Amino acid sequence: MAQNVLAGLTAKMLKEYPGLSVNLVTGIPAPDLIADGLDVVIRVGALQDSSLFSRRLGAMPMVVCAAKKLSHTIRHTGKTRRFE
User: What single string gives the DSSP state of each residue in 13-27?
Assistant: First the structure.
């Protein structure tokens, strides 16, 4: 997501606000805003720390992909479409 979406949006934002300093870091562990000196963090998924607040920026469809041979070994739950 960061490479595909945030990098382009960050470039546009920096043109509009040239004095802004952006440090784009990607990774699984959630940063500590205070300890890491961060003002804003963009995360994908549910908010874990209840002392923080969040705003939905958008939706991103999630897709599971598998090799055709492997797809026949996965149990279909009815909540998802079968692999074709």
Answer: HHHH-TT--------
- 7's CB contacts (< 8 A; 6+ apart) are 24
Q: Can you tell me the distance from the alpha carbon of 64 to that of 17, in angstroms, rounded to the nearest whole number?
A: 38
Angle formed at CA 12 by CA 34 and CA 58, multiple of 5 degrees: 65
List the chain domain ranges.
1-84
Q: Note the pLDDT of residue 53.
A: 79
pTM summary value: 0.49
Residues ≥6 apart with Cβ < 8 Å to 71: 83
Task: At 72, list the tokens.
Answer: 């026949």
- Between CA 27 and CA 7 the distance in angstroms is 14
- Which residues of the chain, if any, have pLDDT below 50? none
Structure tokens at 84: 């074709």
